[in-house]
């Protein structure tokens, strides 16, 4: 469901994030173009190491120092990659917030959960300690960490994994961000906590927050996302509406992902045999692709469709017939 008037909130163009490591370069994000619409829920999926978290961190200006970054990330027209650290701090947490992966490692063990949740508020919104505490109590209630009065002064070690995950959501939204980027919010938590997180995200979505969810959890995506971006080896290989994607994924890698789901018979995607060819400039998936043709030795562009979808695969190039 899209409104007729679409506002772009983030516009990523030709984004490259490379890590020089000893004699080689890890091309974690390698030419990503994506527009993110205001109030949409975008899921970023793809196998481990495909660059999802690095892309998410780039949107927050939270990349580690050992990488090189190129491209443009426009947020309301400003290129985030050219802002100073001070300027970025006005946006991070307040406008664009991050819910990190691995709740246990993400919290400061020597600071109370309440103070951590309150930090974005005290940085950006409110200096009065009593008012901040009241806001944190409301947030704890919202994420069902109850009774909030008994939990607010606890340290992270006394929380379960699910409670920590919910605390991280509370921390993420405490500065009233416009965009929330959540890295694997449903990973490693039990079904009850997963339902709780899904409910929270649903409420946020209804409030109009733009959600970018990095995940491996396809059943969750199927129930939740408006659009899906599939990453493979640092590149987006398919961007589709949720329904269209699950009804008929286009890219051979996306098809493989859905076929590997238990309800579709758990067919694994074959692994590549010619690893050395993966980085030689052609389609990176071709060594694993059952549809590969000679032309796949040339890198395919992201081919746009009239409905806003796009797929990076020569099989969909309509400029000339492909056998
Ligand atoms: N600080 C770093 N230094 C060097 N390489 C890195 C660094 N951070 C990430 N990478 C590399 O970048 C690539 C992409 O990593 P990323 O964490 O974005 O993958 P991912 O898709 O989020 O995987 P997962 O699903 O396992 O979380 C990987 O090859 C990873 O090893
Ligand atoms: Ni990741």
UniProtKB/TrEMBL annotation:
It is a peripheral membrane protein. It holds the Pfam family oligo_HPY. Transmembrane segments: none annotated. One of its GO terms (cellular component) is plasma membrane. The keyword Mitochondrion does not apply. It comes from the Archaea. Coiled coil: none annotated. Keywords: ATP-binding, Cell membrane, Ion transport, Membrane, Nucleotide-binding, Translocase, Transport. Its EC number is 7.2.2.11. It is found in: Cell membrane. The keyword Cell cycle does not apply. Residues 10-258 form the ABC transporter domain. SMART domains: AAA. It catalyses: Ni(2+)(out) + ATP + H2O = Ni(2+)(in) + ADP + phosphate + H(+). GO terms for molecular function: ABC-type nickel transporter activity; ATP binding; ATP hydrolysis activity. GO terms for biological process: peptide transport. It is an enzyme of class 7 (translocase). NCBIfam families: oligo_HPY. The complex is composed of two ATP-binding proteins (NikD and NikE), two transmembrane proteins (NikB and NikC) and a solute-binding protein (NikA). This is Nickel import system ATP-binding protein NikD.
